[in-house]
Amino acid sequence: MSTAAKTVFLALLVSVSSLLAEVTVNRYDLTDDEAGRSSYMSLPFRIWGSRKYRPDPAQRISIILLSNSCSSYALQLSGKETPDGRWLAALGMPYPSQANWYPQSFFTFQCGSVESAQCQVEIMDCQSDKEKGVVRLRYRNDDFAAKVEITLLENDNKLLFAMHLEAVPPGIENYRLDFLCYPSSYGGGFEAGKELRDREVKTSVRTLPCGKTSILEKEEYWLCFYDKYYDLALNRGEGPCAILFNPRQVQCAEARITNYACSLRLNLPVSQPAFLMLWDFNGWSNRSALDYMQALKISH
Question: By C-alpha distance, which of 119, 129, 113 is closest to 176?
Fold first, then answer.
């Protein structure tokens, strides 16, 4: 094949690929029947071990898988249903990594005395097209209501996360968001991996020390969580994870780094929606993920 013919062929291949590219959003309700089992077995990951399907009748679990041409993320909603039909579901991220953003509950919030664990959760809709896939959730509790929107764009490797408060209790002026991760690996558990794990977190301007809570400065708008022992460059772990937010929107931001779990806490005025980006760098070395984050060009 001549050089010109190869060029035309590659151009056609790229054109066809772009036409076929589409973001997909699929919901899997893990019910205690054959339909639920079949849905679960079609997923690219497991939450109960290989080939096992063990739904708890007291728990309701739904998995939502967002995929584009280069990335996939799974959201897990799990929790009990009250006698009056309210679903008190926690939001986790079991894929693409088993570690990183906590599969059981990576995101929680509090507004006044209202906590996310007390809220009824509704999956409003799951939509997708060639450009993006979107999951919309609604949280309700008495005089509180909020909408969470999670988006995956085509040919992108991150999730866009937005939270809008729709109703707040009287007299409440701010709310709090918490994001929880276990960078790269659990190391066999809290005690088992204590001597091996070596957590570290970099922000846009510095390295945060392990074993303490750090108040972030206004120039610190992203955090990359990783483990120096569980590094893909050393053929260990799954890879880092990262989060980015707009420091001008928050009243206070603090990061808590321990030898096991790490977290980011944001405080915002109730008039301010929250907008963030989340990455799971599954399969990336620490250096590759840090180079990626440090190369970002962000204007607030």
Answer: 113
Which residues fall within 8 angstroms of residue 192, CB to CB, at 6 or more apart? Answer: none
152, two tokens: 């995956």
Residue with tokens 């990594």: 97
For residue 113, what are the contacts with CB-CB under 8 A and spacing of at least 6? 169
For residue 3, report the phi and psi dihedrals to the nearest 5 degrees: -60, -40
- The predicted model scores a pTM of 0.92
**Contact status, residue 104 vs residue 90, Cβ threshold 8 Å:** yes
274-300: pLDDT as tens digits? 999 999 999 999 999 999 999 998 876
- β partners of residue 141: 144
d(CA 296, CA 98): 26
Copy the structure tokens of residue 3. 């050089």
Q: Report the DSSP beta bridge partners of residue 12.
A: none
For residue 92, the cross-strand partners are 76
Q: Which residues are paired to 89 by β-bridges? A: 79
Q: Three-class SS of residue 262?
A: strand
Question: Amino acid identity of 277?
Answer: M
**Distance separating alpha carbons of residues 7 and 258, to the nearest angstrom:** 52
In angstroms, rounded to a whole number, what is the distance separating the alpha carbons of residues 272 and 251?
10
Residue 5 has pLDDT above 80, yes or no: no
Instruction: Collect all residues with Cβ–Cβ distance below 8 Å to 178 and sequence separation of at least 6.
Output: 107, 108, 109, 263, 264, 265, 266
Asked whether the beta carbons of 70 and 155 are under 8 A apart, the reply is: yes
- The predicted-structure confidence for 164-219, as pLDDT tens digits, reads as follows 999 999 999 999 999 999 999 999 999 999 999 999 999 999 999 899 999 999 99
